[in-house]
Automatic annotation (TrEMBL):
Residues 652-915 form the G-protein coupled receptors family 3 profile domain. It is a multi-pass membrane protein. The lineage of its organism: Eukaryota, Metazoa, Hemichordata, Enteropneusta, Harrimaniidae. Residues 962-971 have a biased composition (Polar residues). This is Extracellular calcium-sensing receptor-like. Residues 951-961 have a biased composition (Basic and acidic residues). It comes from Saccoglossus kowalevskii. Keywords: Cell membrane, G-protein coupled receptor, Glycoprotein, Membrane, Receptor, Signal, Transducer, Transmembrane, Transmembrane helix.
Length: 1051
């Protein structure tokens, strides 16, 4: 063979080898990786990211799916399973004398492929599989779990989180090492409600077995916590752009809903973010579910980073599996016959494995379907790039074998939440088997305490022990399955921040968008906080920072969510928490008011009603202040009401006490004046005994003002009653006796039985009797219903009124009426005698005093009932002062003024002259009235005009001064005779002399007052002006004499 022919042959062989490798690896190869052992664990992983149908015409055979897009995540998870099995087999403390094997299948993220491989494992497989780990996302896992439940084969999922798998009948053999989405929904609700200004959010979910239950659970829990849903949208996987645009429109139309909760896969959230960036909707905060919370590759442009900056999310805690990093770095396709490693090698270093390398690999693991890696090619595809995932294209650059994963793949590949969950699943099976090997009767879990035979183990027996497994992982965490077949709901809370970020390059470029983040296997730094990749820096990318943790086991202790709000960075690296509310928050002091037709988060703020408060923001109701308290001006807190009464230091009280003191001082001065001038006509005419008693009572009236001052007590309330009522009753009783006496003297119309009242001692007695009657009423009132100090806390807003509770019951009305009746009678007498002589004008002033007294009472009642507290007490004080000052100023001060400043009016001569002057005026008025009645001339010419039956005074004109008078028995003819004899038949006479006589006959009881003027016939005539009255008029004459009419003679 020539050299040229050899070269052609070599090139042809190389081309065929490259085509062979491409067909096997990337054109739909179905991969099976097996390792023998005493107990085989099945593994279902997404070694390819998706499937592709080459021919659906059925012209060349049945429709088949071709697996495309090598998956980094699926490769790593499969390697974790093999690593865990090797680690357990090399341990001496667990599963002694029993080795584990595995049978790993590629399900290509396809439900049909998953069911096909599962059926092959359970039916067509030569070796029985005792348990299955897989199969990725919720959709494929639900199909496989239902199939395995038929055989009671335990299935442990490392990524399926849908709560629909909790059905114990449909998925009776299903367990998982991840929490279900109910815990995730709880974690996201706790996250949203941890911000006070987030109660108006939108929800977007994927319309499948993952998104529907999760969004529904979040909605229910959020509403229970007071969060309202502004928009609720579900979109189908791979939906049209129009549907996505409709969702964007609804986000745009709800500008107040700043928070959007997204239960989406990578594909869907990437499309949402792209269109939000195109619409410049960059002010929203995205809350990510664990399906995409680490998929930072969705923010590849500046606008997309503006959309996603500040986003929050929940992610399953990542764990660096001890030794797995070194295990991955030691893998080399030139040293072992493992097709998965070859595929990962060619994808990582963008090279092709030479055929010679494949032919010269060690065959220590070789053998027909035992300890071998088998490749089954189903179809050919020339070039595939699907959904943004890179499919390796054959290249003429050959792999040298000198490459190393350590130079390209770092810790980010060895620390994924789902890698750790695969690791847990393998160890859970191992510990369940170990519990079976250590089981002793009667401690077994089977019926009767029996133990299963590990060498003849039934799948349902292993399921029983798996459900009760309890162990501690390599990190010291307690692991067990709950009643729903899952582990505890623990999540890390992350924040997407902009800045100089280190992200895993391969993760950012190769994310396959699966709900379990199959391609993006992120890593935390040594501080367990920032996603890093030492291989490549991307300053323009998003960094993911851990800001807290959620643990559902701590919810009962109100410590489920622990978050450091200070570590959160929002839009434009701002630290101010954005607001997502339908309505602005109601400040303390206001409550929410319902708006008809709107969710409860949309409301109006209404000020709390009187007497109620709220010190919370966004309060739904106001709390009534306890009795004795009142809201402050802002209605945010209850403060104690202040006690109101007429305090001693109150300005009104001080003014009233000054007035009362002046009244007492004035009364004392008047009393001293009366005592000093007690023998003067004015004092004598005022009845000295009654006047002194009157002034004493008046002083008590002024003193009663002080009983209304200060904080009321029961004793003080009781003292007020006798002071006020008895003193006023005595005052008006004295005035009644005075007016009655004056009227008796000057009108002489009181019956004979009333004349005894003219004696001073009897007048005092009458006053005391009248006052005693009031005392009896007061005593009965104090015994039956004594007044007491009462608090009134509910009358005014900020005040508690402390008053003497003297309600207007029957006794107090009788007490008031008693005084009013005496005062009314006194006013009547005083009014009738108001026109007496000037020195008898006490009746006129008594009238004024009584009028002021009644006016004070008339104004007192509306004021009293219309006020409370100190103003009510002030009304009583003003009543006391007005009445007391009326008596002082109208009755005592005028007399005192005459005594001190008008002494010439306080003489006997002046009293006599004023008395005669008053009598003359009254007689003239009487005679004028008579003349008008008889139509006679003003000048009398005969005695015929003197009425029959009257006493005719005979004035003696003799020089001896003797006088005669008509007999006491009335005789009309004799009266005329005496008058003719006295004056003559033709003598003219006019009224000139004042005589007051009381006629004591049965025919007439009138007081006859007339004036007689004698015109003498000659200048030498002498007229004697001696008054003559019957003896029966002695009492009246004594009173007249005291006013200046001395030396009266009596028959």
């Amino acid at each position: 063979m020539t050299a040229s022919q050899f070269n052609i042959l070599v090139n042809h062989r190389i081309t065929c080898m490259i085509l062979y490798v491409y067909l096997v690896l990337y054109a739909g190869a179905s991969i099976v990786v097996r390792h023998d052992g005493d107990f085989i664990i099945g593994g279902l992983f997404n070694l390819h990211s998706s499937t592709y149908i080459v021919d659906d015409t059925l012209s060349r055979g049945p429709i088949e799916e071709t697996c495309v897009g090598f998956s980094w995540g699926g490769f790593l998870r499969s390697q974790v399973m093999t690593y865990a099995v090797d680690e357990i087999n090399n341990r001496s403390d667990i599963l002694c004398n029993i080795t584990l094997g595995y049978d790993i299948r590629d399900v290509c993220s396809s439900t049909s492929k998953s069911l096909s491989e599962t059926f092959d494992l359970m039916v067509r497989n030569e070796v029985q599989v005792g348990a299955v780990i897989g199969a990725g996302g919720s959709d494929t896992t639900m199909a496989v779990a239902e199939l395995l439940s038929v055989y009671n084969v335990p299935m442990l999922s490392y990524a399926a989180t849908t709560s629909m798998l909790d059905d114990p009948v449909k998925y009776k053999s299903f367990l998982r090492t991840v929490p279900n989405d109910i815990h995730q929904a709880n974690a996201m609700v706790e996250l949203v409600t941890s911000f006070d200004d987030w109660n108006w959010v939108g929800i977007i979910g994927i319309d499948n077995f993952y998104g529907r239950p999760a969004t529904a659970e979040f909605e229910v829990l959020a509403k229970k916590r007071g969060v309202c849903i502004a928009l609720y949208e579900l979109i189908l996987p791979n939906c049209s752009d129009d549907i996505v645009d409709d969702v964007i429109d609804k986000i745009y139309e709800n500008p107040s809903a700043k928070v959007i909760v997204a239960f989406l896969y990578w594909d869907e959230i990437s499309r949402i973010v792209q269109r939000m960036a195109l619409r410049n909707i960059t002010d929203r905060i995205l809350v990510a579910s664990e399906a995409w919370s680490m998929s930072t590759s969705i923010a590849s442009t500046e606008l997309e980073r503006q959309v996603t900056e500040g986003s929050l999310g929940v992610v399953l805690p990542a764990r660096n599996i001890p030794g797995f990093y070194d295990y991955i770095n030691k893998l080399n396709p030139f040293n072992e016959n493992n097709i998965l490693v070859s595929a990962a090698w060619e994808t990582a270093f963008n090279c092709s494995m030479p055929m010679t390398a494949k032919e010269t690999r060690p065959t220590t693991q070789g053998g027909a379907r035992n300890n071998t890696a088998e490749i089954m090619t189903s179809s050919v595809e020339s070039h595939i790039q699907h959904s943004g995932y890179i499919t390796h294209i054959p290249t003429t650059v050959y792999c040298s074998g000198e490459e190393s994963f350590s130079t390209h793949l770092n810790d980010s590949l060895s620390s994924s939440a789902f890698l750790y969950r695969v690791y847990l699943a393998v160890y859970a099976i191992a510990h369940a088997l170990d519990d079976i090997t250590r089981c002793e009767y009667p401690d077994g879990l089977l019926s009767g305490g029996t133990c299963p035979d590990v060498w003849n183990l039934k799948p349902w027996q292993l399921l029983k022990y798996l459900q009760n497994v309890n162990f501690t992982d390599v990190f010291g965490h307690h692991i067990s399955f709950d009643d729903d077949g899952g582990v505890g709901g623990v999540y890390d809370i992350v924040n997407w921040q902009n800045g100089n970020t280190k992200v895993p390059a391969k993760c950012a470029l190769m994310d396959d968008g699966q709900s379990d983040m199959s391609n993006c296997e992120p890593s935390w730094d040594e501080n367990d906080s920032i996603l890093v990749d030492e291989s490549k820096e991307h300053p323009e990318y998003i960094q993911v920072v851990k800001i807290g943790r959620y643990d559902h086991r701590q919810i009962s202790m109100n410590n489920g969510l622990q978050i450091n709000h200070g570590d959160i960075t929002w839009k434009n690296s701002c630290k101010t928490i954005p607001t997502s509310r339908c309505s602005a928050p109601c400040d303390p002091g206001k409550r929410k008011g319902i708006l008809s037709g709107f969710p409860t988060c949309c409301y109006e703020c209404i000020t709390c009603s009187e007497g109620t408060i709220t010190n919370d923001t966004d309060s739904t109701d106001c709390t009534k202040c306890p009795e004795g308290t009142w809201p402050n001006d802002e209605q945010t807190m209850c403060k104690d009401k202040y006690l109101e009464y007429l305090a001693w230091d109150n300005p009104e009280a001080i003014a009233c006490m000054v007035l009362a003191g002046l009244g007492i001082l004035a009364t004392v001065i008047v009393m001293a004046t009366f005592l000093k001038f007690r023998n003067t006509p004015v004092v004598k005419a005022s009845n000295r005994e009654l006047s002194l008693l009157f002034m004493g009572s008046l002083i008590v009236c002024f003193l009663s003002v002080f009983s209304c001052m200060g904080e009321p007590t029961n004793t003080q309330c009781v003292i007020q009653v006798p002071l006020r009522s008895l003193s006023f009753t005595m005052c008006v009783s004295i005035l009644l006796v005075k007016t009655h006496q004056i009227m008796t003297v000057f009108e002489s119309k009181v019956p004979r039985a009333g004349r005894c009242l003219f004696k001073a001692q009897l007048q005092v007695f009458v006053v005391l009797v009248l006052t005693a009657g009031q005392g009896i009423v007061v005593f009965l009132w104090l015994c039956l219903n004594p007044p007491k100090a009462v608090y009134f806390p509910n009358i005014a807003k900020e005040v508690i009124y402390l008053e003497c509770d003297s309600d207007f019951s029957a006794p107090i009305l009788v007490m008031f009426a008693y005084t009013w009746v005496i005062a009314a009678v006194c006013l009547g007498f005083a009014f009738r005698t108001r026109k007496l002589p000037e020195n008898f004008n006490e009746s006129k002033f008594i009238t004024f005093a009584m009028v002021i007294y009644f006016m004070a009472w008339l104004t007192y009642f509306p004021s009293y009932f219309g006020t409370n507290g100190r103003f009510k007490a002030l009304c009583q004080v003003i009543l006391l002062l007005a009445s007391s000052y009326a008596m002082l100023l109208c009755i005592l001060i005028p007399k005192c003024f005459v005594i001190l400043f008008k002494p010439h009016l306080n003489t006997t001569e002046y009293v006599r002259s004023t008395t005669l002057s008053h009598a003359n005026r009254r007689a003239s008025a009487v005679m004028d009235t008579r003349r008008r009645k008889s139509m006679i001339n003003p000048v009398l010419t005969s005695t015929e005009n003197i009425e029959d039956g009257e006493n005719c005074l005979h004035v003696d004109t003799d020089n001896d001064g003797k006088s005669t008078q008509s007999p006491s028995e009335p005789n009309h003819n004799q009266h005329r005779h005496h008058c003719r004899q006295l004056f003559g038949e033709n003598n003219e006479f006019t009224l000139s002399q004042v005589v007051i006589c009381h006629h004591d006959t049965e025919l007439d009881s009138k007081v006859n007052v007339f004036r007689v003027r004698i015109i003498p016939p000659s200048p030498q005539s002498h007229i004697s002006r001696t008054t003559m009255c019957p003896a029966s008029a002695r009492d009246s004459i004594e009173l007249v004499a005291s006013h200046g009419l001395d030396n009266p003679t009596f028959s």
